[in-house]
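Data deposition worksheet. Section B asks for the primary sequence of the deposited chain exactly as it was used as input, without tags or linkers unless they were present during the calculation. Section C holds the resulting structure in token form. Section D is free text for depositor observations; keep each observation to a single sentence. Incomplete worksheets are returned to the depositor.
Section A, Depositor: J.P.
Section B:
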Amino acid sequence: MDLEVMIDNLSDIGCSDEQQKRAKILYGSGEKEELIRYLKKCRCGLIEEMHESQRKVDRMDHLIRKAERS
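Section C:
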């Protein structure tokens, strides 16, 4: 898949409109290294969201186990 098409679809993977706009600007201006750094930063944000979601699942599992024991 073409990089430009992938950047156009960043919202499909959870990036905000602002993040998508910034990535398009960096891509359009040819700032490849800065684009890569920015995409990695966005990735870190997605990883943190994933970790927070996992913590919520872990808490729910704990609650379920407590309820099963009582």
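Section D:
The chain is about 80% helix and 0% strand.
The mean pLDDT is 94.
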